[in-house]
Amino acid sequence: MTERRFGPLAVVALPYAWLALFFLVPFLIVLKISFAETAIGIPPYTPLITPDLHLDLHAANYEFLTSDALYAFAYGNSVKFALICTFLALLLGYPMAYGIVRAPERWRGFLLMLVILPFWTSFLIRVYAWMGILSDNGLINQALIGLGLVSAPVKLLNNAFSVGLGMVYSYLPFMVLPLYAALEKLDPTLLEAAADLGCRPWRAFVRVTLPLSLPGIIAGSLLVFIPMCGEFVIPELLGGPGTLMIGKVLWDEFFSNHDWPVAASVAVAMLALLAIPIAMVRRLLQVDLP
Amino acid sequence: MINRLSGFLATMLVVGYVFLYVPIASLVIYSFNASRLVTVWAGFSLRWYGEVWRNEAITGAALNSVEIAVTAATGALILGTLAGYGLSRYRVFRGRALFGALATAPLVMPEVISGLSLLLLFVGLETTIGWPAGRGIGTIAAAHITLGTAYVTVVVESRLASFDRSLEEAALDLGARPWKVFAVITLPLIAPALIAGWLLAFTLSLDDLVIASFTSGPSSTTLPMEIFSSVRRGVSPQINALATLFLVTVTIIVLIAGQLIYRAPKLEAKAQES
């Protein structure tokens, strides 16, 4: 049958070439430029191959990254925020996903749609919405002052709280969807059997539901953790000096300092951190496809 | 016992949905506020919608965004359909593992990395072969095609995974040529998924700030870039009005796309009955 169809090459040649040019090659260039020297000019970096065909590698950018405490702080902050917020998203997302699975069947599609919809509606706008709620004259402070609970506005914006809130809020749908997919496959008769054998619901949850939903927990956590590590918009709009993250450092190196080689080495360092989680997500996504 | 669990889950669902929708609702409500202060209610007004309409920076950026999104979605549809079809139908070919990785990795790659690397590619190409001459709408569209292709690939691949191939095989047995089978049978059956993929790629492009900021040029500000630069200066009711218009547009697109993905298997069943 196969030989009567098109050859695979004829079908995939065009997307293959496109993705190689616009996805694979750019990474090699980033890697290359991260070893170049900063120079005044356009583009602002030295060529890697000198006219006498001598490979001119500079590890200076990486030395710079390790010598300046700012980068280590931002790097550590990114991982810390991403880990904590992934866990918080799991704490909120798991019961939500389980609740949707246990809801009457005619509601399930609608409830799921309600989770998917914010995921597709502008990220930037959803982060902006929190600025209006958390600012000094925002909704929460107005309510607190109106109720006489506080006399001066509580500082809710531009700190770790607002960044964490924004991260959990923005990435919650990424967590709920894989958890839902895993919990939906769970056979309810297993829980009935456990109950018949005298197992208490809490114990049945820990011994049956939780282990069987582990693939969903891992997939959801990775899908949330990876973009959180590289997040730029949230620390920029909701964060302050104490919540500097690596995505914002990369942005500032590039747009404010115009230091392309350092921006490239920040990207390589970020990728080194995320390579294993990204590879794991790809495996999980592939297993999902029959 | 069971009831206590259900009660807890129902409570968490309510908490979760309130958490997801209250910020969006407050944004929409205050877009109709007559006061310049975003959070002090001073009566219903459409004033800010009028100001958005008369703001040429915003309308110009919106036109740029739509132009880029249409180009990007169309390019991503073509490339993603080919890639999804290839990955789904040919389980073994040389370089398949790399191709699969390239097709889906943009989905999970942090945007700052994709943006920076694409910019460096464009600059490198310009200095070596003189193309693209400068950055602008074209380079943003190329970047968005790459991102959108990944989404269309996944939609098409998962659609074809649940595809009953007996219709295709019957046509082939009756002597139809492969490209004709693809055009007359496969394509119409997966058409809803293709439209959904196009709409998702369109939305993704319309929504993107980070990659567009890296790959844009001086005269190609997109709508998210315009919103971002004004949001950095603080909250403004005009942005609330613009955000509301944006949310309504994107919600309609997503609902249509969702319907199409959901309805697709039903259409196939219908085709088989007739």
Verbal overview:
The complex is a heterodimer of chains A (290) and B (274). By secondary structure, chain A is mainly α. Chain A has helices at residues 8-33, 60-67, 69-102, 105-120, 123-134, 139-146, 160-184, 188-196, 201-212, 214-229, 233-238, 246-255, 260-288. Chain A has one domain (20-288): MetI-like (MetI-like fold). The longest helix of chain A is centred in the N-terminal third of the chain and has 34 residues, at 69-102. Chain B has eleven helices and no strands. At the A-B interface, helix 1, helix 3, helix 4, helix 5 and helix 7 of A face helix 1, helix 3, helix 4, helix 5 and helix 6 of B.
Largest sheet of chain A: none
- The level-1 CATH class of chain A: Mainly Alpha
Strand content of chain A: under 5%
What average pLDDT do the residues of chain A reach?
85
Radius of gyration of chain B: 23 Å
Structural class computed from helices and strand pairing of chain A:
mainly alpha
Ends apart, CA distance between termini of chain B = 50 Å
**Rg of chain A, alpha carbons:** 24 Å
Attribute tags:
heterodimer, A: 290 residues, MetI-like fold, B: 274 residues, 11 helices
Helix and strand arrangement:
The complex is a heterodimer of chains A (290) and B (274).
Chain A: H1 8-33, H2 60-67, H3 69-102, H4 105-120, H5 123-134, H6 139-146, H7 160-184, H8 188-196, H9 201-212, H10 214-229, H11 233-238, H12 246-255, H13 260-288
Helix pairs in contact in A: 2-13, 3-7, 3-10, 4-7, 7-10, 8-9, 10-13, 12-13
Chain B: H1 2-30, H2 47-54, H3 56-89, H4 96-108, H5 111-129, H6 137-161, H7 166-173, H8 178-207, H9 210-215, H10 223-231, H11 237-273
